[in-house]
Design goal:
Elements: E1 4-10, H1 17-30, E2 35-39, H2 47-50, H3 61-65, H4 71-74, E3 76-77, E4 84-87, H5 99-112, E5 117-121, H6 124-130, E6 136-141, H7 145-152, E7 162-169, H8 173-176, H9 182-189, E8 193-198, H10 205-208, H11 213-216, H12 222-231, H13 246-260
Parallel strand pairs: 1-5, 1-6, 2-4, 2-5, 6-7, 7-8
Antiparallel strand pairs: 3-4
Helix pairs in contact: 1-12, 7-9
The chain binds adenosine-5'-triphosphate and magnesium ion.
């Protein structure tokens, strides 16, 4: 049986939900935690590309849900990262499955695997019901007001443990002026903070299509590693080791501290 279960979702599309799920999964795996990444983004899977497994995918989450294949057989080890296994998402699917089917799939996966951590990239339609069963739910938002408001409108189970991941924090002063500060963003999202992730030019759309990228530059970085530590009850700073390059890092950390003031 799987140990800890973490849902990653977002109120609005394109804000980095799948990328955050992948980066977090890599961070756990790199710390030696056996990790299962599950892509439940029906009809819009991304994890097979992000993990460099697009060409190897045979079965997907839909095959598991329809009991066409054993979940373990449908999953693939991520070649570039030890301790990481992926259950790819379904490309062909008629709409998001109903609550009962979603819960059954979640329980099947939890029982079938023995990884320490299971991270699920989940559409917002499934999160209300699944957040009841998961240990932690992470709602990803960028710094746009639309995305932050959509985050505030997400529905969760009353017993859910929900945190927001503020993604794509502007990394230069001029851009930052156009967006809410971290404190304002938290007020708009109406959720406590899990992590602040900076806008990283290397995570671009073009790169996403290049599966080989994962092998040469795995999606791992200090903020995600620190988030993985905090999610398992440890202490790790919100801001440290953000960017390579001393001068750039110093400026960014100073700027981020100011933006994080009282957050
Ligand atoms: N911190 C970041 N810095 C820069 N670009 C990012 C960052 N996070 C995500 N991106 C980019 O944003 C785009 C959307 O990311 P992603 O596919 O993870 O979003 P999503 O919320 O899962 O979208 P969808 O609604 O399609 O599922 C991708 O091109 C990704 O590379
Ligand atoms: Mg996605």
């Amino acid at each position: 049986m799987v140990g800890k279960t973490i849902l990653v979702t977002s109120g609005k599309g394109g804000v980095g939900c799948s990328t955050v799920a992948a980066r977090l999964a890599v961070a756990f795996a790199r710390r030696g935690t056996s990790t299962l990444l599950v892509d439940l983004a029906w009809g819009n899977p991304a994890q097979d590309f992000l993990c460099g497994l697009a060409e190897r995918t045979v079965y997907d989450a839909n095959d598991v849900m329809c009991s066409r294949v054993d979940p373990r057989r449908a999953s693939l080890p991520v070649i570039a990262v030890q301790n990481l296994t992926l259950l790819p998402g379904a490309t062909a699917f008629d709409g998001v499955p109903g609550d009962a089917e979603t819960i059954r799939l979640f329980e099947t996966l939890r029982g079938a695997f023995d990884q320490d951590v299971m991270i699920l990239d989940v559409p917002k339609e499934s999160v209300a019901v699944l957040s009841e069963f998961a240990d932690v739910t992470l709602a990803v938002s960028d710094f746009s007001a639309a995305s932050l408001r959509a985050t505030a409108n997400l529905k969760f189970s009353k017993r859910a443990h929900v945190r927001v991941v503020l993604n794509r924090c502007p990394a230069d002063r001029d851009t930052a002026k156009l967006y809410p500060t971290v404190r304002e963003a938290l007020d708009l999202a109406c959720l406590p903070l899990a992590a602040v992730l900076f806008d990283e030019p290397r995570l671009t759309t073009d790169d996403l299509a290049d599966a080989e990228r994962f092998k040469s530059r795995p999606l791992v970085d200090v903020p995600c590693k620190n988030l993985s530590i905090r999610l398992t009850g440890g202490h790790a700073p919100l801001l440290r080791g953000l960017i390579r390059g001393r001068k750039r890092r110093k400026t960014l950390v100073r700027m981020a501290r100011r933006r994080l003031e009282n957050a």
